[in-house]
Design a protein that fits this description.
It is a single chain. With 502 residues, the protein is of the alpha/beta class. It contains 14 helices and 23 strands. The strands form five sheets. Strands 10, 11, 12, 13, 14, 17, 18, 19 and 21 form a nine-stranded mixed sheet that branches. Helix 3 runs parallel beside helix 4, helix 7 (224-230) packs antiparallel against helix 10 and helix 12 packs across helix 14.
């Protein structure tokens, strides 16, 4: 994990590597990354005359480029970007450039760097730092040799207050842990282990309560979906509820306000491993299914980040956890389940397991929390990946237009983008069963993402509901943008941003 700190940069020499610290007057030298957004600050460039000419020439051609100058034993990196594009696009290009920079740092054996700039806004610097944090993460736990990582980044303190820098870093650390959980194979993170991990984090975090329900409690709640999916597994299921209430009026003795009473409920799919069950996944399709709990990891990370940074919101994460396997008394196609809310479901395909555990969690939220809105995140359908590839989230809503529009807006800002799918009533027909209230998979291979969304929406009743299908983005097989192969943490910045908007 990169350690970010603030420094007071008073003056820099023309070499771009020596600073004076304006607080104590100290002179010191360091590797430097200089961000250059527009021409207005040309005179402050930490470069020699010929170098300035070179930069000018390059910028006339194309404003986006990286130059690196040896100032051995230090290095100076010069990142030029076009600040005139729309803000979200500029910020995303900075995140992606962070990956390129990191590769260069690694080649140059640079693991500490100072960051400053000219013609650059704080949100642009923040995007670059966020990109460094996202790009620097890799899943190293099982490697015998520690791979390269950037260790320290000292940031010009004119851009942020100490508290702002710390808040950003706390969010990025939660994303780090989200990715680590998703990357962990089921052998080392099954449902009971994940529940224990969440409980132990919550115990150390002010304002967060964690309730872990074990198999017997889940049985007495009659969560027919979660129990059915768990029947093929050696490991017990868990149902974890994380609650953080930072809303005004949540304090003891104060009259409770609406915000304090009706929480935002975040439901996350926690399939610790998806074999498909008796409808076992063929060939390569099973690979990477350790990531089928990314929704749960995302929602837990969002609640923890909200608590870390004391956001004034009331959020509850509801996380059904189990793996799905064909062992023991595994549930079978043709089984008819009775769900937590009494709805009966005909199992058509045991590989459509996510919606079964989510349905119980959504119904539990409706019955017990009086939610303002229910939002779920789930690696739910291969159809979502086929429809939009790895570039965004498929989103649907029922009575949740306002929330969806807010999420879309934040999504554009943080570049975790949403594509809306229709929820026309015609699709309801596709999930009707001849023998039960619903079937767990549509009666046609078409519109698989929508029929899954429709299935879940049934359990939200008339509570505003937004469904996020993150199957395409939770886990990248190949490196993409500011992510190395593996878990991305996609969705944490989106939902955290949505909570910040409340
Ligand atoms: N976890 C999978 C969906 C998935 C596929 C996520 C690829 C990430 C990448 C889900 O449980 C599943 O198996 N869905 C089936 C549903 C079908 C049986 C109705 C699918 O999409 O094929
Ligand atoms: Zn499945
Ligand atoms: Zn699944």
């Amino acid at each position: 994990m990169i350690n970010f700190e603030l420094i007071d940069v008073d003056k820099m020499n023309a070499q771009g590597i020596a600073f004076r610290n304006s607080r104590n007057g100290d002179l010191y030298e360091s590797n430097l990354l200089f961000l250059y957004g527009d021409e207005t600050a040309e005179r402050t460039l930490p470069l020699g005359k010929k170098e300035v000419a070179l930069v000018k020439e390059r910028r006339e051609e194309n404003k986006d480029f990286i130059l690196s100058f040896d100032r051995l034993p230090y290095h100076l990196y010069f990142l030029s970007f076009d600040s005139e594009k729309p803000a979200a696009e500029v910020q995303e290009s900075l995140r992606r450039n962070a990956m390129k920079l990191l590769k260069q740092f690694e080649a140059d054996r640079v693991n500490e760097i100072a960051v400053c700039g000219a013609g650059t806004l704080p949100e642009e610097v923040a995007a670059l730092l966020e990109g460094l944090s996202l790009a620097d993460y890799s899943f190293d736990r099982y490697k015998s040799k520690d791979p390269y990582h950037l260790q320290r980044v000292a940031v010009d303190s004119t851009y942020f207050k100490a508290e702002e820098m710390e808040a950003m870093q706390r969010l990025w650390n939660r994303i780090y842990w989200c990715r680590e959980w998703v990357n962990l194979p089921v052998q080392d993170l099954n449902a009971p282990a994940f529940a224990d991990e969440l409980a132990s984090i919550a115990a150390d975090l002010e304002g967060v309560t964690c309730t872990v329900m074990d198999k017997r409690q889940i049985e007495s709640l009659r969560m027919g979906g979660l129990l059915a999916v768990n029947r093929g597994s050696v490991d017990e299921p868990r149902f974890v509820v994380l609650e953080y209430n930072g809303a005004k009026g949540s304090e003891k003795g104060v009259k409770r306000t609406n915000e304090a009473e009706s929480p935002i409920c975040l439901v996350g799919k926690g399939i610790m491993y998806d074999t498909g069950g008796l409808n076992i996944k063929p060939g390569d399709y099973m690979q990477e299914m350790k990531s089928d709990m990314a929704g749960a990891a995302t929602m837990a990370s969002v609640v923890f980040a909200a608590a870390d940074n004391k956001l004034p919101v009331h959020v509850v994460a509801l996380l059904p956890l189990t793996d799905s396997r064909p062992g023991f008394n595994a549930y079978a196609a043709d089984d008819i389940l009775t769900m937590y809310d009494g709805t009966t479901v005909e199992v058509v395909n045991t590989d459509a397991e996510g919606r079964l555990i989510l349905a119980d969690a959504i119904a539990y939220a409706v019955k017990n929390y009086n939610p303002r809105v229910i939002i779920d995140a789930a690696t739910l359908t291969g159809a979502a990946v086929r429809a939009i590839s790895t570039f965004g989230i498929a989103v649907m809503e029922q009575n949740g237009r306002r929330e969806l529009e807010m999420l879309k807006l934040v999504g554009e800002q943080v570049y975790e983008r949403l594509v809306e799918f229709p929820m026309w009533k015609e699709y309801d027909e596709l999930i009707k069963s001849d023998y039960a209230d619903l079937r767990n998979s549509g009666n046609t291979p078409q519109a698989g993402t929508i029929t899954a969304g429709k299935f879940l929406a049934h359990f939200a009743k008339d509570v505003p509901y937004v469904h996020l299908d993150i199957a395409g983005v939770a886990y990248f097989t190949k490196a993409q943008h500011c992510w190395r192969p593996g878990a991305s943490g996609y969705g944490v910045r989106l939902l955290y941003g949505y909570l910040q908007m409340q």
